[in-house]
Amino acid sequence: MNPEQRSTISKKFLFIALISIFLITGCSQSNSEKAYLVTAEPVIDVGNEKEMPTMQSVPTAKPMFTPTPTVLPTPTEIPIPTISIGYMGFSGERPTGLVVSECSPLTIYDKDVEGVQEHIDRYDEMCRAAANDGVTFEVRSAFRNYYDQLDYYTSERFGPSVALHPDESMHVAGMATDLTANSRSWTHEIVGCYDEEANYFTYLEEPIAHLAYAEKVRNGEVSGLCEQSVTVVPIKRSMLFGLTPGCTLLKDPEWWGDPEVIECSSGTLKPNGMVREDWHFENADLISAFIAE
Ligand SMILES: [Zn+2]
Q1: N or C: which end of the chain has fewer CB within 10 A?
Q2: How far is 181 from 219, CA to CA, in rounded Å?
Q3: Are 100 and 159 in a shared domain?
Q4: How far apart are CA 217 and CA 221, in angstroms?
Q5: Distance from residue 184's CA to the centre of ligand 1 (Å)
Q6: What whole-number distance in Å separates Cα of residue 203 and Cα of residue 292?
Q7: Beta strand 277-283 with 243-246: parallel, antiparallel or unpaired?
Q8: How far is the CA of 194 from the centre of ligand 1 (A)?
């Protein structure tokens, strides 16, 4: 063999060797590609599974349709406007647990203004409404424990004509608050009339100060007042918040339209011999009354 032939042979070997390497490498690559594809297949499957939820997101669009029918019944409930008022004796369960007022946390004697949630919720709502009208509530007394109330009841200063026995007191139940006189005209102002027979509430065109209202009734100047009927109750502003002033007994009330009851002066007595308490506000039954136009 001459050197040229050797060179050709060695070139051929080299060529074959290279081809073999490429083939092997190519195979190993194609194997790895296959392996990659194998692992990639589950990924594609997962992708498909992910696409399935995307298909299930079509039901997500269905709820969009569902509210549309629920919107339809709602307008049918709207037409009759009602109002909650309270002026009758509280007959519900007396809940337990005391909370402090957010609107006026301290009494004028720096004690907590406390009551049960059901009372403080109503009180705070009334207190905030008064604040919006520029009237700041001052609390003399709210929740009283049994023995404090017993002290009031047995004391010479107050006694049974002013303080109830603790078993009867709404203060002990955490459902009464005594205010100072500075908010009296706001809480007692006559704002509307409730017809018990028709279960209708109407607002007066203009609220009328309670003392002026009582005076007009006495003088027979009844235009602009509530109808002078025993089934029609003049509603004081505090009653709109479910809190009734201590102007008459709540469980067996006199007629609220009686000028003496409207006036609510401590100079006159309730049927049980106790003074009328224009400072005292307690939970009363909330009546859902229809509002007349
Ligand atoms: Zn009181």
Answers
A1: C
A2: 26
A3: yes
A4: 6
A5: 14
A6: 8
A7: antiparallel
A8: 25
Distance from the CA of 178 to the center of ligand 1, in angstroms? Answer: 5
The answer to whether residues 265 and 151 belong to one domain is yes
- Name the domain count of the chain: 2
Are 168 and 208 in contact by the 8 Å Cβ rule? The answer is no
Full residue range of the structural domain in which residue 7 is found: 3-67
In-domain check, residue 73: no
**CA 82 to the chain's CA centroid:** 17
Cα of 288 to ligand 1 centre, how many Å? 26
* 289 DSSP assignment: E
Residues 264, 182 share a domain = yes
| pLDDT value of residue 276 | 95
Q: Which amino acid is it at 171? A: H
pLDDT digits (tens, 9 = 90+) for 139-172: 999 999 888 888 888 888 777 777 888 888 899 9
Question: What's the alpha-carbon Rg for the chain, to the nearest Å?
Answer: 41
**Bridge partners of residue 275, in order along the sequence:** 269
Distance 230 CA to ligand 1 centre (A): 27
Please indicate whether residue 130 or residue 77 has the higher confidence score (pLDDT): 130
CA distance linking residue 201 with residue 289, whole number of Å: 6
Burial of 53 per CB tally in 10 Å (0-12, 13-18, 19+): exposed
192 CA distance to ligand 1 centroid (A)?
24
Verify that 57 and 182 share a domain, yes or no: no
Residue 268 belongs to some domain of the structure: yes
Say if residue 63 is in the same domain as residue 93.
Answer: no
Cα 201 to ligand 1 centroid, rounded to whole Å: 27
Predicted local distance difference test score (pLDDT) of residue 63? 47
Cα 114 to ligand 1 centroid, rounded to whole Å: 13
Q: Which of 33, 176, 192 is nearest to 98 (CA)?
A: 176
Which of 258, 122, 290, 263 lies closest to 194 in space, CA to CA? 290
